[in-house]
Amino acid sequence: MRTRVLVHHAVSESLDLAAGTCSAMPEAGGILLGAYRGADMEVTGRTDPGPGDERQLFSFTRADPLHDAANREAWHASGGTVSYVGEWHTHPWSGVEPSSTDAATWRSETKRCGRPMVFALVAPGEWGLFVVRPRWPRPSISRLVVLEAGDVGVVHG
Ligand SMILES: [Zn+2]
Question: Given a cut of 80, is residue 1 above it in pLDDT?
Fold first, then answer.
């Protein structure tokens, strides 16, 4: 089944901004917050890197407690509908293609969560969205394209 993802405008704009500023910087990243709407998903927020994260030239390791705190806060504020649905990180030196490490990490995270997850890659000048679905023998990774823009956000599918 095809998964459509509604990305709220504030999230799109912040990823546009990251795409404009990430070139030749250490990698940045964070989590994506959102909700499931039947077979579809909605991304309503994201976190920025914190001082406890490890930002290297060619890797980003999420370690700052702010990401978990933002997840808990979103969960409580939404009455249990909004939470961690995926991750984003930058590729300051390349494009919007998952590295083999990215693909392996995304698949194991999707397996662990047992539901479709959404991942964003941000490169200089562009960003892209991927949905990873639990599948046997291994989760499938699909890159989404922009379908339409509306009042709330942009639909990718
Ligand atoms: Zn990567």
Answer: no
